[in-house]
Amino acid sequence: MLSNAPNSDEAAVELNDLGKSFSSFRAIDKVNLTIEKGEVFGLLGPNGAGKTTTMRIISCLLAPTDGDVLVYGKSVKDQKNRPDICREIGLLTESPNVYERLTAEQNLVFFARAYGIPEDEIDSRIKSVLEEFGLQDRRLDRAGTFSKGMKQKLAIARALIHQPTILLLDEPTASLDAESALMIRSQISETAKSGGRTVILSTHNMNDASKLCDRIAFISHGRILASGSESEVSAKVRRGMSGLRPDRVQIKLISSEGFDEDDLSKEVASVKSIHKDVDGRTVDLVFDEKYTDEEVDVLTSKAVDTLVAKGAKITSVVQSRPTLEDLYLEIVAGERREN
Q1: Span 223-249, pLDDT tens digits
Q2: Shortest CA distance to 333 belongs to which of 260, 243, 211?
Q3: Are 93 and 100 in contact (CB under 8 A)?
Q4: Residue finishing a domain among 168, 196, 228
Q5: 84 and 221 in one domain?
Q6: Cβ–Cβ under 8 Å, residues 99 and 158
Q7: pTM, whole model, 2 decimals?
Q8: Is residue 275 part of a domain?
Q9: CATH (domain of 51)
C-alpha cells in the first residue's frame, strides 16, 4: 500500500495534460483534473467521449501516450509504482461480469486470493463486504440466480475486497431497471460516506451524477469542457452562453389578495418577467440567465417576502432550473458553434 496514502497531503488523483492516442485517433487530449480525497467525482459525457479510456489509464490498464496521472503523487508511468497504485484502486468496469456458476462467496474468495489477501483475513473481509452490500443471506447462492442489480452489487463488493481507498465506477447503472439503479445509487452513496473513499464515477446518466457527485467534469471528444460543482458549472455556462433555459419560480397563493405585479417588479427588479395565471392564484417568475443558482435563491426569497408583506398567503414555492443535462447540451452546442 502507498505509504500513508489516505493521510498524505497529495490529492487522490491528478491528471496532468493527459493524452491518449490509438493510431491516428486521439481519444484523450490534454486533460487536466484534480480529484481530492474523499469526494465523489463525476466524469460525464456521451459514449465515445473518452471516459472509459481515462478510467483505464488511472487504473494502470492503459499507459498514457503523453502527460501523466498521479495517484497520491505517484506516477502511473513509473512501472515500479503500478503494483502499489493498483492496490489503492478498486475498479468496476462497464461490463462487470461475475462468475455465474460460483456462489457470491466463491466469487469473492477467488478475487481476494487474486489480490494476494492473506488467507487468515479472507473470511473476515468477505463477511464485511457481504454485510455492507446486503448480500450476507445470499452468500451461498450462485451468482447466476441474482438479479442484474444484485450482480452489480456483487461486482462492486468484489472491487472493494482488497480495501482500496479509491473506487472507479464505469457506468455503474447502465442497463439496470429503475429500481435496481436506485438501489445501486444508494449503495454507492453509502459506500463513499461510510468508507471515506474517493469515488470516481464515469457515466452519461446525468441523473446519477446530480444525485451522487460532489464535483463533475463534462468531457467530449477527449477534452474537458467544464468542471466544478454543479452550481459552479451552471454559473460558467450562464456567463458564457445565451441559449440556456432560464430559472423559473412558481408561487401558489390561496387567493390573488396581496399580489401586485408593479410592486413585485419594483422590489425584485431583476425578475425578467412576471406572469399571473388565469386562476389568479399562480404566479410565475422568470429570472435572467446570468444569475447563479445562489443568486436566484436570494431573489426568490425576496419575492416571497414582498408578497407576504403585502398580505399574500402562500401555499407553495417551486423552483425550476436547468438540469445537468441542460447544462451539458448547452456546453456541447457551444463547442460546436466554436468549431
Answers
A1: 998 899 988 888 777 666 555 666 788
A2: 243
A3: no
A4: 228
A5: yes
A6: no
A7: 0.80
A8: yes
A9: 3.40.50.300
